[in-house]
């Protein structure tokens, strides 16, 4: 099945570019070409049947050419549709690379001409949107959704969704910060054959019954959600998701009569909001997503403005009863918290169809999102050079001190996943990072960050009370995901590392097949023990360093391994006692001021923080973090500067 379906999104010319990752599993059967969703549809004349399909037309910038490349005649008319410009070029390239690898039928609407030129050269099914053809249109890149250019973008993209649906395609509108891991075609088409083969590979039977494609077959429109509980998503279906924000960054509109009318109305409402509080400023709406949320709900009913159905179906009647509105299951259409924090799909044994990088922290920008994707091996567009070079790997381990703190709580019958443990952990991680980073620079190696463990979630904004929910984002607590592997933005600022130009890699880097060379394990032994005997070395260590030591001694002792691409430290606690070169020391300590800064961690306390936090912190600690009576922040110092390596350090130490 692969060769045929590969042709859908991209032509052959891009194969060379992305022969990269191949660890994908396409678990459903071959997609047969003639099945159509059963719902009533607008059929353009002479649609599906007559073989043989003509060769796809050259990409001339038209929508039709892109559509016939993405979804040739004879194929199910299902298409993923996204939009992007040069500003999001890297994210778009990642989107396209994933779509190609997963044989996802997709069309890219280029918002500017360079994007069209680049993607069409690569053979992607791309066309020029009306904005690309417009002289002088520029997105100003602000993401507050209120700028004029953003509004015009929203008008354009809803119009394009409506246009493609009107041509008879089931459209999965997708933001560009999404990766498609598997083709959604079988899930959307949901033929008898698709159902038999897993309806898009849902997996285990109970999961299949709850979220298989049949549960959404009747939906004209189905939308993803910002909700966070995979359990409630399973148990309660549409009634759960509808209580929160519906996210149109992943939105299915089927080419049924009702779906077609809805898409046109969505566009019309975004383009010219009818007067009145519901859609027009100042009450509403700065984004197409807001318009969508208001459209489907009936303001005459109590929130959520919809009549909740009996039972636990995945769709209900919405938009004044005119459409069947479904919610795309979280486990298959994963939002950022679900995927990058809860790791929920994996726990359920489900591989998502799509992952949407919502809920990223730091500056919520492409840097943070790219980082999140990289950490899970979902960033496909690094060039070959990225994988070449010499690296120093820092591994994660729980320090004895942290283990003792956790143990203290556990012995008292409390959870070891709490704010005290988390704050201590972050401080320790960054102190270790100081030494590992300094050593990597001294060795001329790029540091590979560890998979740190987090013991308390971090809020997107501090307006919720996380203490009430066992240190989990309110609404996600039933996933019971603590402790979890920290995304970097829970510990540091990826944007600051980028701005400082500090190269680094993530732990997932080591799992990439393009990284070559054996790992040389470095053992660490406290100097006193090292002097007494050299047999305390861990068995797998190729070399043992006495700690603490200075950078010169480390370089000398590691010199035999200078040709090895990968050296690995088991941890970096009390690793360095100083840096020899005064110039390098100054430079490093200046850099550390920027790189080793842990972002403030803040939460609201619904009761007074002095009461709520008494269980965890002393009155002094509570007072130090207080931001008014009902908000508390953990604030962190940058670790102490590294000292000069003089007498008393390392080799020279008089032990
Ligand atoms: C809702 O639908 C009913 C009939 O189906 C119609 O009479 C009414 O005008 C509609 N209301 C709105 C707000 O569209
Ligand atoms: C996610 O869960 C799976 C299955 O439990 C596990 O194998 C994997 O290591 C987890 N990944 C992370 C990042 O926690």
TrEMBL record:
InterPro entries, alphabetized: Glycosyltransferase_77, Nucl-diP-sugar_transferase
Signal peptide range in chain numbering: 1-18
GO molecular function: arabinosyltransferase activity
Signal as UniProt keyword: yes
Annotated Basic and acidic residues bias: 33-44
Region (Disordered): 30-64
Record keywords, A-Z: Signal
Domain Nucleotide-diphospho-sugar transferase: 106-364
Gene Ontology cellular component terms for the protein in this record: Golgi apparatus
Transmembrane segments: none
PANTHER family for the chain: ARABINOSYLTRANSFERASE XEG113 (PTHR46936:SF1)
Protein name stated in the entry: Nucleotide-diphospho-sugar transferase domain-containing protein
Organism: Prymnesium parvum
């Amino acid at each position: 099945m692969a060769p045929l379906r590969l042709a859908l999104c991209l032509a052959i010319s891009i194969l060379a570019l992305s022969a990269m990752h191949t660890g994908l599993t396409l678990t459903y059967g071959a997609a047969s070409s003639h099945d159509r969703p059963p719902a009533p549809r607008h059929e353009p004349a002479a649609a599906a049947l007559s073989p043989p399909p003509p060769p796809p037309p050259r990409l001339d910038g038209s929508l039709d050419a892109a559509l016939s490349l993405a979804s040739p005649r004879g194929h199910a008319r299902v298409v993923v549709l996204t939009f992007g410009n040069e500003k999001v070029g890297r994210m778009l390239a990642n989107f396209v690379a994933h779509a190609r690898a997963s044989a996802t039928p997709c069309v890219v609407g280029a918002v500017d001409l360079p994007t069209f030129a680049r993607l069409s050269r690569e053979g992607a099914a791309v066309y020029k949107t009306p904005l690309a053809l417009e002289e002088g249109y520029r997105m100003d890149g602000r993401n507050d959704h209120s700028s004029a250019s953003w509004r015009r973008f929203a008008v354009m993209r809803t119009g394009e969704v409506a246009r493609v649906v009107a041509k008879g395609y089931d459209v999965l509108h997708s933001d560009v910060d999404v990766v498609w891991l598997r083709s959604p075609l079988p899930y959307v088409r949901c033929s008898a054959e698709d159902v038999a083969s897993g309806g898009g590979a849902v997996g285990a039977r109970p999961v299949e019954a709850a979220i298989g494609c049949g549960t959404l077959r009747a939906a004209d429109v189905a939308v993803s959600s910002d909700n966070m509980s995979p359990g409630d998503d399973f148990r309660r279906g549409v009634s759960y998701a509808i209580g929160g924000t519906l996210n149109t960054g992943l939105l299915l509109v089927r080419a049924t009569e009702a779906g077609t009318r809805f898409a046109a109305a969505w566009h019309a409402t975004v383009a010219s909001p009818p007067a009145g509080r519901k859609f027009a400023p100042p009450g509403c709406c700065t984004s197409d997503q807001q318009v969508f949320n208001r459209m489907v709900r009936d303001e005459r009913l109590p929130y959520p403005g919809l009549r909740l159905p009996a039972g636990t179906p995945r769709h209900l009647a919405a938009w004044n009863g005119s459409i069947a509105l479904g919610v795309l299951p979280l486990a298959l259409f994963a939002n950022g918290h679900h995927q990058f924090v809860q790791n929920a799909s994996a726990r359920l044994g489900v591989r998502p169809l799509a992952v949407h990088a919502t809920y990223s922290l730091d500056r919520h920008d492409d840097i943070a999102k790219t980082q999140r994707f990289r950490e899970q091996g979902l960033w496909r567009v690094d060039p070959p050079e990225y994988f070449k070079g010499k690296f120093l790997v820092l591994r994660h381990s729980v320090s004895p001190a942290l283990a003792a703190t956790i143990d203290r709580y556990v012995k008292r019958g409390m959870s070891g996943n709490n704010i005290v443990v988390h704050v201590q952990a972050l401080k320790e991680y960054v102190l270790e990072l100081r030494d590992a980073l300094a050593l990597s620079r001294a060795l001329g190696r790029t540091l590979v960050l560890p998979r740190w463990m987090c013991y308390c979630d971090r809020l997107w904004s501090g307006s919720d009370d996380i203490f009430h929910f066992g240190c989990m984002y309110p609404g996600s607590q039933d996933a019971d995901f603590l402790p979890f592997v920290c995304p970097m933005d829970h510990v540091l600022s990826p944007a600051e590392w980028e701005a400082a130009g500090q190269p680094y890699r993530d732990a997932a880097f080591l799992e990439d097949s393009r990284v070559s060379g054996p790992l040389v394990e470095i053992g660490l032994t406290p100097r006193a023990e090292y002097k007494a005997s050299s047999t305390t070395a861990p068995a797998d260590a190729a070399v043992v360093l006495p700690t603490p030591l200075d950078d010169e001694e480390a370089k000398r002792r590691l010199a035999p391994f200078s040709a090895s691409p990968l050296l690995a430290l088991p941890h970096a606690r009390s690793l360095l006692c100083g840096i020899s070169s005064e110039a390098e020391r100054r430079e490093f300590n200046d850099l550390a001021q920027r790189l080793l800064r842990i972002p403030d961690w803040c939460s609201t306390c619904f009761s007074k923080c002095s009461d709520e936090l008494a269980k965890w912190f002393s009155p002094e600690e509570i007072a130090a973090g207080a931001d008014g009576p009902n908000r508390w922040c953990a604030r962190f110092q940058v670790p102490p500067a590294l000292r000069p390596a003089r007498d008393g350090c390392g080799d020279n130490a008089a032990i």
